[in-house]
Amino acid sequence: MTLTADLVIATAVAYVGLLFLVAFLGDRHTRNRDGGFLRSPFVYTLSISVYCTSWTFYGAVGSAARTGLEFVTIYLGPTLVFVGWWFILRRLVRISHDQRITSIADLISSRFGKSNRLAVLVTILAVIAIAPYIALQLKAVTSSIETVAGASEFGRGSLEGWDEVGLAFGVAAGMALFTILFGTRNVDAKEQHHGVVAAIALEAVVKLAALVAVGLSVLYVSGGLDAIYTRAAAAGLSIHATETFGDRWIASMLLAAAAIICLPRQFQVTVVENSDESHLRTASWAFPAYMLAMSLFIVPIALYGLTVMPSGSNPDMFTLTLPLAAGQDGLALFAFIGGFSSATSMIILESIALSIMVSNHIVVPIMLRLTANEGIGDGQGVRRLILNARRLSIVLILLLGFSYFYLTRASDALAPIGLISFTGVAQFLPAILAALFWRDASAKAATVAISVGFLVWLWASFMPSFASSSPAVAAIMAEGPFGIAWLRPQALFGLERLDPLAHAVFWSLFLNTSILIVGSLVTSQSALEHVQAALFLNVFRKAPAEAGPLRGSATADDLFLVARRVLGHQRAVDLFSEEAKLAGMPWSTLAPSPAFIHRLERELAGSVGAASAHVMLSKVVSGDAVSLEEVMQMADETQQAIEHSQALERASAQLRATAEKLEIANRQLRKVDQQKDEFLSQVSHEVRTPMTAIRAFSEILLTETDLDEASRRKFVNTIHKESLRLTSLLDEILDLSALERGERVWENRAIDAEESLDRALHVCDALARRSGTVMRVGARAARAAVLADPDRLGQVLINLISNAIKYNGADRPEVAVSSRVEDDRYVIEVADNGVGIPEEERPRIFEKFYRGRLGESAPHAGAGLGLPISREIITRMNGRLELVPGMEHGACFRVTLPLISVPAATADV
Amino acid sequence: MTRRKLVAAALFFAAFGALAYLPPLVLLFRLDLRVFGVPVETVYVFALWIMLVAGARWFSRVLPDDSAPPEESRPEARR
Known about the structure:
The complex is a heterodimer of chains A (909) and B (79).
Chain A: H1 5-32, H2 41-48, H3 54-67, H4 73-83, H5 89-99, H6 104-111, H7 116-151, H8 164-183, H9 194-222, H10 225-234, H11 247-262, H12 264-272, H13 277-296, H14 298-308, H15 318-325, H16 329-370, H17 382-407, H18 415-425, H19 429-437, H20 443-462, H21 471-479, H22 500-522, H23 527-537, H24 556-567, H25 569-583, H26 594-608, H27 610-621, H28 628-703, H29 709-740, E1 749-752, H30 753-771, E2 774-777, E3 785-788, H31 790-806, E4 814-822, E5 825-832, H32 852-857, H33 866-876, E6 880-885, E7 891-898
Parallel strand pairs in A: 2-4
Antiparallel strand pairs in A: 1-3, 4-5, 5-7, 6-7
Helix pairs in contact in A: 1-7, 1-9, 1-16, 2-9, 2-13, 3-7, 3-14, 3-16, 4-11, 4-13, 6-7, 7-8, 7-16, 7-17, 7-18, 7-20, 8-16, 8-17, 9-13, 9-14, 9-15, 9-16, 10-14, 11-18, 11-22, 12-16, 15-16, 16-17, 16-27, 18-20, 20-22, 24-25, 24-26, 26-27, 28-29, 29-33, 30-31, 31-33
Chain B: H1 3-21, E1 34-35, E2 38-39, H2 40-62
């Protein structure tokens, strides 16, 4: 086979035809079926490999030939990002699915309050930043065709008369046509292009296979790795990375890591085209593995090329020239197709991604503004306009790329051009990271930060690339603008020690990030920003808040018109039918719920971007749409209401508790009140008996004038006795009530309780004799120091003993009194041999006025207050008075008092 | 390992990868030494790369699955 320029061009065209067929079949495949193979994680991974462009295929070899290992940083950065997929990419994918994000501009705009200004800024900057990258592809394809043509013995064939610029223009025009045919056939609701992805995946396989084939052939021809390195070392090449791991190494690794997130096409394939989050899981190791495979043979090819190719040959083209020089025309053609593949896939996807941004963020908003008064466009519908806008943007983007190529055609290396683009798009990284992780980042700060970062990039990175073609730029580079030395593009603020790349990366990202942080700290967010920031940060919370900021009473017809114009008739009909079915009512009466409007907004956002979709629907729904400020205010009020009700709840809980306490107190009060009533009635009863007697006898004395002296004396005696009884009853009542109210205050002193007992026995002795009761004084404690009042203790003991005597009731009454010391207690027991106290009365004998049956009938009935008073007194001495089982069947009262350890001298004896 | 520890391990793994490729760690391997003819720093870079791929593959299997439940408007996620 003889390789000619015509043959490679024909092969390229045929290859493009094959890609187109694959894309077509892929689209049809996914439309008819569930996607199957095309939605496998490996196709997804291969489509991400669009990262490896002709910069990798040709440029990496050139880079390895010039600076050794440094080229790997371009792949190590993305490797690290994918290894850490859990932290950034997973978030990006989830957010973008939830919010129907269609591009990097859409993402940033959506996070910062659906700001259209920010979207336009990002779009324009992305288009500018990508121009060098597209120029790189054009340059690579052009050079590869030139290389083949130059090497061919049949001359340039039909390329005769075309110079490099013309050829590049031809390639650009062809690419534009191809991309338009490929990517703008329809507007997908989610901006997913399954056919294109299928074609890109095929290209990924082709370019890897081609590079590996060339690499293996080089290894085979040269005799292995050892031979290649040895020969390179012998040829005086530095095979060791002596200067590699410096500032450039760090800067380009950082750039590559940023690029895999920020490049519009990478965002498109990794995030937008992702149909299943779990694919990212596979890509997290498969994509790094792909890049590893791509990089394995770069250094051997470069070193072998440097040793065997004539000096002065372009190292960027070694991948192609080595097979050509070896006469392996088939391999050379394969290599050419591989390089062509990597360039076409990049151009197609990058221009599709950029055109989506341009149409969604620039064309559609302008159109909306122009048609502000007459609804949404007219008859034609938004779809055609969007498609045309995209076609136009594709042409524009490729034209920009070509212009850059034209202006910088004098420079030869590929890789530095790519790094310029990387530095440009890296300016989006701070804003994206802030969008993912920082709630307080504000739109104003992000706008200024990106703008400043970009200006620095334009000055320090983009402009210097024209130095070789523009003397004016070269002058500025050398002296600074107007001779201001500290503004020299590659030595800003006098920073001269850094490599130009690291210098541009440092200043642009440093200023960008600083402004973003400081700016966000000093500015405040709009209401919508606030909402979006929360949505972005809480993306992994379950049950996301679906509350749409739009609500109103737009009719289904109005909404349908909007939806049909953007989504197309069929999709709109499907959407509305589904909603009607869910709501269970016919279309005509369908009242769109806020949830449906929200869903519609997301669907529209999938086609025209979040900001535009929001504006579009706002227009229709604006009838009584609530402004976001109002929504926020409502939310605030709700929040306040919630807090208020929580406070109320707390207060009412306290109230409930208080009420319960009151209830209890009330119950006690009622009980006490009842006791008081009982007490009063008992007191009245007790008082009444003697009073009745007194009254009766005094009446007799008053009316019966002829009474004899003896009777008169007897009656007066009775009256006297009864009044004595009355007085003692009243004394007892007063005493008890004073005791209970704590008014009787006495001081407990240390005394000898035995002495009180002796006194009590002595007092009762007469009573016992009179009633014929035998007093038995049993075992006695020697001495008992207790804290008590001697008179009061004596009162209790007398009461107990006299009770035992009075209410004995036995034939031969006996009363036994004993005392002892038990542990640290002093115990007195007063027992009798009487009839005792019946079982059922025992619990009540300490109640007031309770006298028991025997007491009632006793000749000298007391008031029934003795025992309650005694118990009260003993309690006040920290002791106990209780009824215990005594001797035989009589009653036995026991007084227990705590002993104190007082020296005998101090005890009051 | 608990879910939290796994996630922390994944973060550390990625961060370790980044550190290992940056000075000063990478400078440890800048020796005038060749392994099977290949300069030692080149071997280091690629060996670490292989290790990262293997580690990422392990993590891709063990990291918890909390992908979004298929929504009504994403039929492709249903399958």
